[in-house]
Fold these 3 entries.
Entry 1:
Amino acid sequence: MEVAIYQHILIAVDGSSLSEHAVTEGLKLAKALGARVTIFTATEQFSSLGDVGHAFAGAPEPVRHQARDYLEAQARTAQARACAAAAAAGVKAEALLAESDHPHQAIIEAAKAKAADLIVMASHGRRGVTAVLLGSVTHKVLTHSELPVLVCR
């Protein structure tokens, strides 16, 4: 009896066209292997929307609530598109949303909690000083994850 290399794939999405490409590639792999997928998105925690240096720092609480609701709606829309693509491909998928100030940690924790054996995500392809200054969620996942990570460019 053969066992697929990857049986459960976590695909991290953020709503960008690059993450949609990662969804496409992750679903192709899942289909070929007969794996199921978790479509995962991390949004910023509500408490951090008022932090100094954040775009909503000093904003009244109702404005921060609206911002959080908007971010959550955007995340759910991206997840719905990914789940629809999975259904069209005949791949079993579920969506998972978490709030976190550290998306790379949230991705790794979700993969562990869901017993995923592969993480698929996009890279924005930043290089040089820009990559050093801005950092990269993908780079942090690669650095800290014990699971294999497939990076789609």
Entry 2:
Amino acid sequence: MMRRVAVVLLLSIPGCLCAAQSPQITRIDITDFGVYNLEAHEVIQRSAEGLHQREVANVQLARQTRIIPLQKGVHFGFHYAIVGTPDGAPVQLRMVTLYPPGGLHNPAVATPILRSEFSVTRSIGGRQESYHGVALDYDWGLVSGDWTLEIWYGDRKLASEVFTLVR
């Protein structure tokens, strides 16, 4: 009888461990925001609208502000940390950018670009800071007004910052 109890206990433990390990995001903490200096690396993904997602490194806050100069080459956004459990668990987030009314007008695309969206995999944990931002790379992307950067997990919006781009 003791042997059966031991087998049952051993078989039920892995099931409990798996259920306890499913990622749960409590919130996202924005740790700083504004204009950044960074190293832009290779393009990871291109959209049909002519936008692209790049790898970046050495992201350093140059100036904390929500008022952004409308100049080619400027990088703006925010650093964030994902708070939840278990620490280090990977989660898939949607990074959304909403452009000012009227959108962006890439001459190679027939319709205005009102928003962009892409997915990233990041890790839960307060010590692991990530960056969500925009680079003003193209003349046609120099549009003044409010730009909103959001982070979504499933159907939950976890973070949002509004930046006003001015000439």
Entry 3:
Amino acid sequence: MDRRNFLIGSAAATAVATMSGTALAEGDKASLPPKNIVFTNHNAGKWNAKKSSHLPNIEVAGSKITISTKHAQSDDHYIVRHTLLLADGTVVGSTTFTPEDKPISEYALPSNYNGKIFATSFCNRHDFWLNEATT
């Protein structure tokens, strides 16, 4: 499996696992997404000091979604990819970046979609980040 398909598959699995967390029995101590594998606003783990420059920001304007990561890009440290997913794990789109690119991507939601969306941002040094919004 190539890196691109791995990242897309991981993003979809993470979104579905995150959604599944709402179905856990009350009192269940499971933590979704898993700590120190997927980093979020509330679970930045060992990268807590990096949260502001790695957590993807999601802007919703009707059916237009803009994902941005406030991260400087250099040859040895950069945001590699953004992915946007629907609540059921459907991949809306993804953008792969080079060190020369600004980590900003735009996507169009399917018509009449309302619900949670998930954005991922992958840094070549500071791992896989996930944020969510509701449209």
